Here is the input.
Amino acid sequence: MTAKIISGTEMAATIRAEIKAEVEILKANTGRMPGLATVLVGGRKDSQSYVRMKKKACAEVGMASFGHDLPENISQEELLRIIQDLNENPEVHGILVQLPIPAHLNEEEILAAVGLEKDIDGFHPINIGRLSMKRREPLFVPCTPKGCIEMLDRTGVQIEGKRAVVLGRSNIVGLPVAMLLLHRNATLTICHSRTQNLPQVVREADILIVAVGRAEMVRGDWVKPGAVVIDVGTNAVDDPTTEKGYRWVGDVAFNEVKEIASAITPVPGGVGPMTIAMLLRNTLDGAKRSS
Ligand code: GUN
Here is the structure.
């Protein structure tokens, strides 16, 4: 069997068109233009590139973006002051602090300083806390996990009752996506670096979500025939045959797994574009709720 390739690029383009139309209606009805503030600390090339893509995506759907590019050595107090200003700025409906931030800063305190109504990343402890409990509604759900579920839904994959395995337990992806699967009544297993018999546990999955940051770690014989595989990894690997000298691969050995799974997301062009689409969706939702 050769798997269906779930194109995040195509799906995200559809969602961006939906969002663009809603932005126009919001502007026409209220005069309000959704605005995203990005906060980037330091010179990490990958973070710079992600933030650039997010700002470009805002412009394409008619949203404003406000970029704050801050020096590596900024103090905690200064960063908190900038976030407070953004909390009070009525043109800003979403605040994104690109992670990771330098080690001298207290990430927990920074994320808690983002106003709950502007927490479009869904990383505020109250939003994460609500996500982690039954019958509680977070104002925002983190973008990459939300994008993973949206991909399953738009592909017509049933989640309820299925065996879901999440490989990885990060705050940004593994833990929140696990909570979302549980809310959708999947039977859930979370695996990590200490899991024993990892391939055997992964092979139980009807739905497999991989977010470990290790190039092509999941092999073809780890996957149950017919499983749906969502690959969140983006790893650069050396490849002298390419112009840049490297290429992007996921956490899943795509060429092996596509012969076993029933559906799989590619890297690039899978979860990445969906994360940005969900960021736009959250920012628009924030703008709609504001008054
Ligand atoms: N770093 C990696 N993924 C994300 C994300 O979704 N949001 C933020 N703020 N930082 C990230």
